[in-house]
Amino acid sequence: MATKRSDWIDWIKTIIITVIVIVLIRMFIAVPIVVEGPSMLPTLEDNDRLIVDKISLVFQDPQRFDVVVFHATEKKDFIKRVIGLPGETIEYRDDQLFVNGEYVEEPYLQEVKRNLDPEATYTVDFTLEDIPGGTMTVPDGHVFVLGDNRKNSTDSRHLGFIPLEQVTGISRLSYWPVKNIGIVE
After folding, report:
1. CATH number of 33-183
2. Would you state the torsion angle of the CA atoms of residues 82, 86, 89, 90, taken in this order, to the nearest 10 degrees?
3. Which residues form the Peptidase S26 domain (predicted)?
4. Catalytic residue among 6, 13, 39, 179
5. Is 54 a catalytic residue?
6. Domain chopping of the chain, boundaries
7. Which is catalytic among the residues 4, 6, 13, 80?
8. What is the pLDDT of residues 72-98, one digit of tens each?
9. Which residue from 43, 24, 31 is spatially nearest to 169, judged by alpha carbons?
10. Nearest Cα to 100, choosing from 92, 108, 91?
């Protein structure tokens, strides 16, 4: 009889420890999320499932071209790509990205741009002064983000600069659907 009771106690301890570990991982290390909407096409599709890395933000701020998750409102998180970092000037001219006056290639958009009508523009021209709260440079403690689907994305062009404290994680891995399993680039 004592063995059965001991077995039950061991099972309960195991379950409690497992729950605690899962909660700690979700709070501080990584969390699964679901992509909602077309704003990150062609990189991410509606209903893709991702693992978002939270722990790396403890050690460093997001880097250019990281795909980040941030609080857009109290109840809604958005997924977008970091384009501008604090202190940088950002400009789109003739469908090309310029950071601090230097052309910067966006490899994740090459295929979609190749398939465009030669007369079409994927990203409409703008400078940081054209966006809400516009300034000459990205303010300290903020990033400038865009969706990869430039024609259908609510991003910094509409929301303004994103405070770093609102960034909750960096999308690292896509795990569903199976055809999209891999590193988020």
Report:
1. 2.10.109.10
2. 10
3. 8-176
4. 39
5. no
6. 33-183
7. 80
8. 888 899 999 999 999 999 999 999 999
9. 31
10. 91
Joined together, the tokens standing for residue 51 give 């693992």
Question: Residue 82 CB: number of other CB atoms within 10 A?
Answer: 23
* HEC letters along the chain: CHHHHHHHHHHHHHHHHHHHHHHHHHHHCEEEEECCCCCCCCCCCCCCEEEEECCHHHHCCCCCCCEEEEECCCCCEEEEEEEECCCCCEEEECCEEEECCEEECCHHHHHHHHCCCCCCCCCCCEEHHHCCCCCCCCCCCEEEEECCCCCCCCCHHHHCCEEHHHEEEEEEEEEECHHHCEECC
To the query of whether residue 153 is one of the catalytic residues in this protein, the response is no
pLDDT single digits (tens) 100-131: 999 999 999 988 888 888 778 899 999 999 99
